[in-house]
Write a structure and sequence with these properties.
It is built from no helices and eleven strands. By secondary structure, the chain is mostly beta strands. Strands 2, 4, 5, 6, 9, 10 and 11 form a seven-stranded mixed sheet that branches. Strands 1-3-8-7 form a four-stranded antiparallel sheet, with no helix packed on it. The chain is elongated and about 50 Å long.
Length: 120
C-alpha cells in the first residue's frame, strides 16, 4: 500500500554534513505529517524534527540551527539536512509519516532506518 524508504546515511567527520531522504512510494495516499526520530546506543529514542501538512515545523533543541527539513511534494519525499554534525548526533535515524491510504484514517508508517555515524 504505502512504503517509506530511507537513504543518505553514512560516516562523516565532525563538522560535516549529510542529507537524509525519506520517500513515500505507492498510490492513492495522502501525507498528513512526516518527521524523523533517532536512537543512539544506550539512549532512548528522540524526536528530531517533524512537519505537518499545515507547514508547521518543529526541531529538537539539540538540533536547532543545525538541521532543517525540506520537502519535494512531487516526489513525496522529505529531506533532513544535517549540518555541523557532532559525535552526539550518531544514531540510527528513522523517518515516519502520518499517511492516509485511499479513504482510510491516517496511520503511522516507518522507514527502515539509516545509520549516521559522526567520527574522526
Amino acid at each position: 500500500q504505502v512504503q517509506l524508504v530511507e537513504s543518505g546515511g553514512g560516516l562523516v567527520q565532525p563538522g560535516g554534513s549529510l542529507r537524509l531522504s525519506c520517500a513515500a512510494s505507492g498510490s492513492f495516499f495522502s501525507i498528513y505529517a512526516m518527521g524523523w526520530f533517532r536512537q543512539a546506543p544506550g539512549k532512548q529514542r528522540e524526536l528530531v524534527a517533524d512537519t505537518t501538512s499545515g507547514g508547521t515545523t518543529n526541531y529538537a533543541d539539540s538540533v536547532k540551527g543545525r538541521f532543517a527539513i525540506s520537502t519535494d511534494s512531487a516526489k513525496n519525499t522529505q529531506y533532513l539536512e544535517m549540518n555541523s554534525l557532532q559525535p552526539e548526533d550518531t544514531a540510527v535515524y528513522y523517518c515516519y509519516g502520518l499517511i492516509a491510504y485511499m479513504s482510510r484514517p491516517p496511520i503511522h508508517y516507518w522507514g527502515q532506518g539509516t545509520q549516521v555515524t559522526v567520527s574522526s
